[in-house]
Design brief:
alpha/beta; Rossmann fold; 2 domains; six-stranded mixed β-sheet; four-stranded parallel β-sheet; 42% helix; binds pyridoxal-5'-phosphate
C-alpha cells in the first residue's frame, strides 16, 4: 500500500483514561481517549486529519490553505492555527453572516490571522465556484491554493484516524483491556471512516459506533462508503472495504446541527462535575449523552469496556454559555 505524505503536528500519543466515577454511576467501564489534548489552539480531532491534508498540501507546494465550515467550525480554527504555525496563509469560508461578536473558534480564527469570507447559504452551497474564484485571486498574486474539504474528511484526512487506531492498539495493551466498543460523534465522517478502517487494519476487534450530530444514517453510510473506495483506489489497499460495518446510530441530532437539547447540557454539566472533563454542545456532548442513554436503555448490554473518543470542541461551548446554566 502507498503511504501518504504526513507532517507531524499533533502532540501524540494522547492519553487513554478511565472515567471511574461515571463508570460506577452507569455500571459499565467507560474510558476516554483524550483527543481534546492533541494541541492547545489546534486541539481536537481535526489536527490528526490535517497532518495528512497539510502533508499533501506541502507536497504540492501550496501557499494558502482554503477550507470552509460553520462560523464555529473547529476544523477551520485548527486549519487556521496550523497555517500560522507553519508560515502558510489560510482562507476560511464560513457559512452565514458576520456575527456582532467574535467568540469561541471565530475569535481564534481572527487572532491567528486567517482571511475570512462570510458566505450566505446560497454562496456557501456553490463551494466549487467560490473555491475557483479564490484560487484565481491567489494565483494572480503568484500564490498556490490547496483545497481542504469540510472537516478534512476525505480519503487523505481519514488517515489521521487510521493512525489513531494504531495508537489505541498500544493504549489497549497498556491498559490490558479489549474494549467492546469505540464510540465517537460523526459530523463530516472522516473520524469514523478512519476508525473503521484502522480497527480492521490494526485488528482492534472492537465495534466502532458513531452518533451523528447532523444529517442521518443513510447520508453517512453513503459518504463513508464513497470515501472508502476513494481511499482504496488512491493508496492501493487490498482491504475488503465492502465488508466493513458502518455503524451509525441515528436519533440524537435533536433540534439540528449545532443546537442541543437541555439533556445534552445536563450531560455536559454532569461529566464536568464528576470527572473534570469538558464536552461541547455540538459534537462530544451530544454523542456522550447519546452513549449514556443507550447504555441506560440496555442497548450496550454485555459490553464491559467502552472507549469514548473525546474529539475536542471546547471553544464551541463559549458562544452557547446562556444555555449551559438553564436559561436557554
Ligand atoms: C469535527 C468534529 C467532530 C466530528 O468529526 P468528523 O470527522 O467531522 O465526523 C467531532 N467532534 C468535534 C469536536 C469536531 O470538531
Amino acid at each position: 500500500m502507498k503511504s501518504p505524505p504526513r507532517i507531524s503536528l499533533a502532540r501524540l500519543p494522547t492519553p487513554l483514561e478511565p472515567l471511574t466515577r461515571l463508570s460506577e454511576a452507569y455500571g459499565t467501564r467507560i474510558w476516554i481517549k483524550r483527543d481534546d489534548l492533541t494541541d492547545s489552539v489546534a486541539s481536537g480531532n481535526k489536527i490528526r486529519k490535517l497532518e495528512y491534508s497539510i502533508g499533501q498540501a506541502l507536497a504540492e507546494k501550496a501557499d494558502v490553505l482554503v477550507t470552509w465550515g460553520g462560523i464555529q467550525s473547529n476544523h477551520c480554527r485548527a486549519t487556521a492555527a496550523l497555517a500560522a504555525r507553519l508560515g502558510l496563509k489560510s482562507h476560511l469560508v464560513l457559512r452565514g453572516s458576520e456575527p456582532s461578536e467574535r467568540d469561541g473558534n471565530l475569535l481564534i480564527d481572527s487572532l491567528v490571522g486567517a482571511e475570512i469570507t462570510f458566505a450566505p447559504p446560497e454562496r456557501y452551497q456553490k463551494m466549487d465556484n467560490t473555491y475557483n474564484e479564490l484560487q484565481a485571486e491567489y494565483a494572480s498574486q503568484g500564490l498556490k491554493t490547496y483545497r481542504i474539504p469540510v472537516g478534512a474528511s476525505d480519503e487523505v484526512g481519514l488517515w489521521g484516524y487510521i493512525n489513531c487506531a494504531n495508537e489505541l492498539k498500544q493504549d489497549f495493551e497498556s491498559a490490558n483491556i479489549a474494549p467492546d466498543a469505540i464510540v465517537s460523534a460523526t459530523g463530516s465522517g472522516g473520524t469514523l471512516a478512519g476508525l473503521i478502517i484502522g480497527n480492521a487494519l490494526h485488528d482492534l476487534n472492537s465495534r466502532v459506533i458513531a452518533f451523528n450530530v447532523c444529517d442521518d444514517e443513510v447520508y453517512f453510510k453513503r459518504k463513508i462508503s464513497k470515501d472508502f473506495s476513494l481511499w482504496r483506489d488512491r493508496y492501493g489497499s487490498n482491504l475488503d472495504i465492502d465488508q466493513l460495518p458502518i455503524d451509525v446510530i441515528d436519533g440524537y441530532v435533536g433540534p439540528g446541527y449545532g443546537r442541543a437539547t437541555p439533556k445534552v447540557f445536563e450531560t455536559i454539566r454532569e461529566v464536568a462535575r464528576l470527572e473534570g472533563i469538558v464536552l461541547d454542545p455540538v459534537y462530544t456532548g451530544k454523542a456522550f449523552n447519546a452513549m449514556l442513554q443507550e447504555t441506560r436503555s440496555g442497548q450496550f448490554e454485555g459490553m464491559s469496556d467502552i472507549v469514548f473518543i473525546h474529539t475536542g470542541g471546547m471553544l464551541g461551548l463559549f458562544p452557547q454559555k446562556q444555555a449551559l446554566f438553564g436559561s436557554g
